[in-house]
Design goal:
Blueprint lengths: L5 H4 L7 E2 L2 E2 L5 H4 L2 H6 L3 H15 L7 E5 L16 E6 L2 H7 L7 E3 L12 E7 L8 H11 E10 L4 H11 L14 H11 L5 E8 L17 E8 L2
Parallel strand pairs: 3-4, 3-6, 4-5, 6-7
Antiparallel strand pairs: 1-2, 7-9, 8-9
Helix pairs in contact: 6-8
Length: 238
């Protein structure tokens, strides 16, 4: 079921809070220009992010349908098709989805990832790309993803082990860069701990890799937990 644009415009223009705090993705000033940011200085980073996510998720030929929660304007959601995966997008922000309907021809749902409006095993995989950092109850979200995704779940994350994290926090002190005020940054190890807590009793395999290294660095991807971005895939073995 594809939702029409008007479905996302009935919500209040004054909407600004989620989880008891203001969020940048409820601010039209930011959501209306989100795509431009990706097309600018972030373009090179996005290429490498997609490359490592394709490696992690593309290893399983059984993955045909994917749900991406926190899809935003569908930068990644519409890309999955390039590696042979049909995607559905979900996001809490009607303003993000208001942009998404112009860019993505698949299904979109306005919902909270803590309570996914899907039956058990509805998709092969549930993915989170630069959105998991904003969840106040990450264990609940992982459990929901494990319920809805029958083969596994994929994470594309801003890495805590990056000098850019310090730069962002300094910018915030001076009233700039509002995008990460409510974000919790993870490392592969910290995210793995959350997965273990959420999936206690289940059998699964975890694989991860990092990218987001300086352009001048001889490697752009490696297995050390250092870099601006890491991809992590949880494959269910039970």
């Amino acid at each position: 079921m594809q939702l029409e644009q008007k479905s996302f415009n009935v919500l209040s223009e004054k909407l600004s809070n989620w989880q008891g705090r203001k969020e940048w993705f409820f601010n039209r000033e930011h959501t209306d220009t989100y795509e431009q940011w990706y097309e600018g200085r972030y373009k090179r980073a996005e290429v490498w992010q997609k490359k490592i996510m394709a490696q992690l998720v593309g290893k399983d030929p059984g993955i045909k349908e994917l749900l991406e929660f926190g899809c935003g304007t569908t930068r990644f959601t519409r890309w999955w098709k390039e590696i042979g995966i049909e995607a559905t997008g979900g996001d809490l922000s009607p303003f993000m989805l208001g942009q998404a309907v112009h860019l993505f021809d698949g299904d979109l749902v306005n919902a909270d990832s803590h309570y996914m409006p899907f039956k058990d095993d509805s998709f092969d995989v549930v993915a989170f790309i630069t959105t998991f950092e904003y969840y106040r109850d990450p264990v609940q979200v992982i459990r929901e993803a494990a319920r809805v995704g029958k083969r596994g779940m994929a994470f594309g994350m801003m890495n805590r082990n990056s000098p850019k994290v310090l730069r962002r926090r300094v910018q915030e002190l001076f009233g700039k860069n509002p995008f990460y005020l409510t974000a919790t940054f993870y490392t592969p190890h910290l995210l793995t701990q959350k997965v273990h807590e959420a999936l206690n009793g289940r059998k699964y395999t975890i694989e991860w890799t990092c990218t987001g290294l300086p352009k001048w660095f001889p490697l752009q991807q490696w297995s050390l937990p250092i870099g601006d971005f890491f991809g992590l895939y949880v494959r269910f073995d039970d």
